[in-house]
Amino acid sequence: KYASRPGDNISEKHNLLPIPLSEISLNRLLTQNPGWL
Q: What is the reported pLDDT for 1?
């Protein structure tokens, strides 16, 4: 009754992983995924 369903407590930012800063530094056309700024 009180157990949450899987995926119900995940925030929007956790749909995508952050892009490593080293990768963004190598390619200036990359932008960080939303929520990971």
A: 58
Between residues 29 and 15, the one the model is more confident about: 29
Q: Is the pLDDT of residue 9 over 80?
A: no
- In total, how many domains does the chain have? 1
CB atoms within 10 A of CB 6: 7
- Exposure of 23 by Cβ count < 10 A (0-12 exposed, 13-18 middle, 19+ buried)? exposed
Residue 24 belongs to domain spanning: 12-37
Q: How far apart are CA 18 and CA 32, in angstroms?
A: 7
**31 in a structural domain:** yes
